[in-house]
Amino acid sequence: MTDPEFDTPVAEDLVYGSGVALVFGFPLLIVLNLPMNVFGNSLTGYWITLGILFGYFIILWLIWYVLGSLQFRSHHPTRTSGFQNGQKKKEG
After folding, report:
1. Where is pLDDT greater, at 91 or 44?
2. Domain boundaries, the chain
3. Which site among 19, 42, 49, 73 is 20 to 30 Å from 90 CA-CA?
Protein backbone atom coordinates (compact mmCIF):
# COMPACT_ATOMS: atom_id res chain seq x y z
CA MET A 1 0.00 0.00 0.00
CA THR A 2 1.13 3.51 -0.68
CA ASP A 3 -0.03 5.02 2.61
CA PRO A 4 -1.67 2.49 4.97
CA GLU A 5 -1.94 4.90 7.92
CA PHE A 6 -3.15 7.88 5.87
CA ASP A 7 -0.27 10.09 7.01
CA THR A 8 -0.11 11.81 3.62
CA PRO A 9 -2.87 13.29 1.45
CA VAL A 10 -2.67 10.44 -1.09
CA ALA A 11 -6.28 9.30 -0.64
CA GLU A 12 -7.62 12.85 -0.84
CA ASP A 13 -5.59 13.55 -3.98
CA LEU A 14 -6.90 10.33 -5.54
CA VAL A 15 -10.51 11.43 -5.01
CA TYR A 16 -9.86 14.89 -6.45
CA GLY A 17 -7.98 13.40 -9.39
CA SER A 18 -10.81 10.98 -10.16
CA GLY A 19 -13.33 13.83 -10.28
CA VAL A 20 -11.15 15.86 -12.61
CA ALA A 21 -10.54 12.83 -14.84
CA LEU A 22 -14.29 12.25 -15.09
CA VAL A 23 -14.92 15.86 -16.14
CA PHE A 24 -12.22 15.79 -18.82
CA GLY A 25 -12.88 12.21 -19.95
CA PHE A 26 -16.65 12.41 -20.37
CA PRO A 27 -16.49 14.37 -23.67
CA LEU A 28 -14.19 11.65 -25.03
CA LEU A 29 -16.81 9.00 -24.29
CA ILE A 30 -19.31 10.92 -26.38
CA VAL A 31 -16.97 11.82 -29.26
CA LEU A 32 -15.54 8.33 -29.65
CA ASN A 33 -19.04 6.98 -30.31
CA LEU A 34 -19.77 9.43 -33.13
CA PRO A 35 -18.43 7.46 -36.11
CA MET A 36 -20.61 4.43 -35.46
CA ASN A 37 -23.76 6.02 -34.07
CA VAL A 38 -24.02 9.33 -35.92
CA PHE A 39 -22.16 8.86 -39.19
CA GLY A 40 -23.16 5.25 -39.88
CA ASN A 41 -19.57 3.95 -39.82
CA SER A 42 -18.53 6.02 -42.85
CA LEU A 43 -14.92 7.07 -43.38
CA THR A 44 -15.96 10.73 -43.29
CA GLY A 45 -17.26 10.25 -39.76
CA TYR A 46 -13.86 9.04 -38.62
CA TRP A 47 -12.14 12.09 -40.10
CA ILE A 48 -14.65 14.41 -38.45
CA THR A 49 -14.14 12.61 -35.14
CA LEU A 50 -10.38 12.95 -35.51
CA GLY A 51 -10.81 16.68 -36.09
CA ILE A 52 -13.03 17.00 -33.01
CA LEU A 53 -10.47 15.10 -30.92
CA PHE A 54 -7.69 17.35 -32.20
CA GLY A 55 -9.76 20.44 -31.31
CA TYR A 56 -10.46 19.02 -27.86
CA PHE A 57 -6.74 18.41 -27.40
CA ILE A 58 -5.99 22.04 -28.30
CA ILE A 59 -8.64 23.29 -25.85
CA LEU A 60 -7.24 21.13 -23.04
CA TRP A 61 -3.72 22.26 -23.85
CA LEU A 62 -4.76 25.93 -23.67
CA ILE A 63 -6.51 25.37 -20.34
CA TRP A 64 -3.43 23.57 -19.03
CA TYR A 65 -1.20 26.38 -20.27
CA VAL A 66 -3.30 29.11 -18.63
CA LEU A 67 -3.74 27.25 -15.34
CA GLY A 68 -0.08 26.23 -15.31
CA SER A 69 0.98 29.86 -15.29
CA LEU A 70 -1.03 30.52 -12.13
CA GLN A 71 0.60 30.07 -8.73
CA PHE A 72 -1.50 28.13 -6.25
CA ARG A 73 -1.05 28.25 -2.51
CA SER A 74 -1.33 25.03 -0.56
CA HIS A 75 -4.68 24.58 1.18
CA HIS A 76 -3.03 22.19 3.63
CA PRO A 77 -0.54 24.10 5.77
CA THR A 78 0.31 20.94 7.71
CA ARG A 79 0.58 18.78 4.60
CA THR A 80 4.32 18.20 4.99
CA SER A 81 4.50 18.53 8.75
CA GLY A 82 5.80 15.33 10.28
CA PHE A 83 7.79 14.46 7.18
CA GLN A 84 11.30 15.28 6.18
CA ASN A 85 12.88 13.93 2.99
CA GLY A 86 9.98 11.51 2.54
CA GLN A 87 10.49 9.89 5.97
CA LYS A 88 8.34 10.21 9.05
CA LYS A 89 9.90 12.27 11.83
CA LYS A 90 10.91 10.30 14.86
CA GLU A 91 9.01 11.12 18.01
CA GLY A 92 11.00 12.27 21.03
Report:
1. 44
2. 10-70
3. 73
Residue 30 phi, psi dihedral angles, 5° rounding: -75, -50
Rounded to whole angstroms, the Cα distance separating 73 from 10 reads 18
Cα distances (angstroms) measured from residue 9 to each of 22, 70, 85, 90: 20, 22, 16, 19
> Which residues is 88 bridged to in the sheet?
83
Q: Quick: pLDDT tens for 31-67.
A: 999 999 999 989 999 999 999 999 999 998 888 888 8
